[in-house]
Amino acid sequence: MGLIQASRGTRDILPDEVVYWQQVETAARQILGRAAYREIRTPIFEQTSLFERGIGEATDIVGKEMYTFVDRGERSLTLRPEGTAGAVRAFIEHKLHTQGGVQRLWYTGAMFRYERPQAGRQRQFHQLGVEVLGSADPRADAEVIAIATDLLQTLGLKDCTLSLNSVGNPSDRQHYREALVAYFQPYQTQLDSDSQERLYRNPLRILDSKDPRTQEICQTAPSILDYLGPESQSHFQRVQQYLTDLGIAYQLNPCLVRGLDYYTHTAFEFQTENLGAQATVCGGGRYDGLVQELGGPETPAVGWAIGLERLILLLQQQAQVFSTQLDFYVVARGEVAEAQALCLAQKLRQQGFAIELDLSGSAFGKQLKRADRSGAPACLIIGDAEAEAKTVQLKWLKSGQQQVISQADLLTQTEALRQQLITVS
Fold first, then answer.
1. CATH 3.30.930.10, applies to 15-169+229-317
2. Confidence of residue 338 (pLDDT cuts 50, 70, 90)
């Protein structure tokens, strides 16, 4: 029988890489917790109509990329292609708006889109996202951008730029849509095939094309900023001022429209030149009409999502080193010694130490070589003599210094051990 491999567009995340994911998730939990964001966990699949109504039937995601299937009850279901629609559905279904005030939510998990797999983009991918529901205040826009900035900086990400735009309200966008159609019509045959298809269906998406000739044509297209009404202009100016007050640098990009129909007013992306065509690390914006579109009360909202595969690829490229830190590597040889080592390792773990127990049963020399490679600052060695005396050899791997200590003292002198570990680390 042939070897079964992971499906195209999916990949295994092996232990050496998982430490990057854990570092990102830990940093996110700390930063979002300090800002009063609460985690929400929604199903991996939803009714297809949720995404058709929420994301928009004219989008590439709904039209070309969704994993949709009919279950045994003849219901059309879709693996979630993004996180916002599910979070909003849960907000409505469980009447979170009745709790009063602003709901600050965050989520992380797998999403699914049928795309051409490439570095940083898979058919099963993962997002970390935030949603602020119930505030139309421009400060909410600035807050979510500031939190994303804090997270990326905390992780040590370099060379990221913030692009900022406003897509106005639906009335502004309708006037702008008409201007775009009029502008692009004379160039219709010169546009790439996707943009030709979008011309009358979703002309704003033409501005997002990666085709060189289409990008060239877009350079002189009308700017959305010239079509913003007084309300939209005021909102956008205040967002910019708040970002300036926060010391967050940004670049205005009138071509930034994002790929989902539900955006209103602020749209933004954190981008890098270190991922080739996949330049966006974090993207989001305001979506004031989505809750009502999905059957809920009129509720302004703003949020963002980070593609974790791209983020971790960047951290690896920039030589950010994250590893699982061991305290002790435990080596034993001989039946009695190995039994004592098992008990000692477990008791130390229960006291909060990170312990790896060598289970190979090989010679001391081979076990000690593995101890050197483990990254642990110290090694605990138990042989026949130590087992009989109920002692352990404590060896500091960097200096080679070694001392004998009773197993009982080792378990009672934990604070002294922790201080020694801090000193040598």
1. yes
2. very high
